[in-house]
Amino acid sequence: MIVLPTAIVYTLRFSFTKQLIAVIALFVMIVVFMWLYSIGSWANSQLPDNLRKAVLPYALGLVIPIIYLILVIILYFPALESDTPPRPPTWMLPMHLLSMIGIFYGIWYSARQYMALQRGHEVDFMLFSSSFFLMWMFPLGNWIIQPSVKELFDKLENTGS
Fold first, then answer.
1. 56-89 confidence digits (pLDDT tens)
2. pLDDT tens digits for 136-161?
3. If you compute the radius of gyration of the chain from its CA atoms, what whole number of angstroms results?
4. Nearest 5 degrees, angle CA 63-CA 23-CA 103?
5. Could you give the C-alpha distances from 149 to 42, 83, 153, in angstroms and in order?
6. Any residues with CB less than 8 A from the CB of 139 and at least 6 apart, and which?
């Protein structure tokens, strides 16, 4: 899913413009965030009520960076084509910071809820830090974490939880 858009663009011999690179980045971002959301929301739904966390802030944290990148592609990238690119608009800094916080929280939530499900109790950062940093280092973390997610999913599916 990550290599496919780039391979298609390269095979069709499109020129790599800023907009095209941003669209490929948007596609990869959506894939990564869907993976994070699927782990976090699934783990949260499998936990007992006392360990569940609100999903709405988590979902917003993963949607805001996508909206931000779409806005940058539509509103700011066309202005970069001129001879003298304009200064970035003032809305970009708060949106960028909000996006960074959202990504950080999305990874934090996914790792925490996944490890809480694995351990069966509330976990502190030291217990889920390895999952947190592996999810941060996508796609390397995906190759390491996804097999254990699948194993836990199969285990819970077979026990009827």
1. 999 999 999 999 988 888 888 766 677 777 788 8
2. 887 777 788 888 888 888 888 887 65
3. 19
4. 30
5. 10, 50, 6
6. 2
